[in-house]
Design goal:
The chain has about 120 residues and is mainly alpha-helical. It contains 5 helices and no strands. Helix 1 packs antiparallel against helix 3 and helix 4 runs antiparallel to helix 5. It is elongated.
Length: about 120
């Protein structure tokens, strides 16, 4: 069970890397006002959602404690991110505040995961 959990944590990290990496690659375009949500951002967010849900289930099945409030906050942020990226995925450009919000929520999700104990 531990190997499976560690494998899913790795996939979860790959998902956040795709989401944040997609955001960071568009930073220069955001300055010009031509930033767009790239497919890596959508796929990263979906990977995070699926692996996160499976990780919670596996941890609970393994009788490990799960901070449900923390997971709820992280899920809420991820749903907002996923909703914005999904709805605007085909737009040629995304407004700076909206694009910046996705980056801010992504970074907030990372810091919640790392600092909330």
């Amino acid at each position: 069970m531990d190997v499976l959990i560690h494998l899913l944590v790795g996939l979860h990290i790959i998902g956040i890397a795709a989401l944040l990496g997609g955001f960071l690659t568009q930073m220069k375009a955001m300055g010009r006002g031509t930033a767009r949500f790239v497919p890596a951002m959508l796929h990263g967010a979906l990977t995070m959602l699926v692996t996160g849900a499976v990780l919670i289930g596996l941890n609970q099945a393994d009788d490990q404690s799960v901070d449900n409030v923390k997971m709820g906050v992280k899920l809420a942020l991820l749903i907002v991110i996923l909703g914005l990226v999904y709805v605007k995925r085909d737009d040629e450009k995304v407004d700076k505040p909206l694009f910046g919000l996705v980056g801010l929520l992504t970074v907030a999700n990372i810091f919640i995961a790392v600092l909330w104990t």
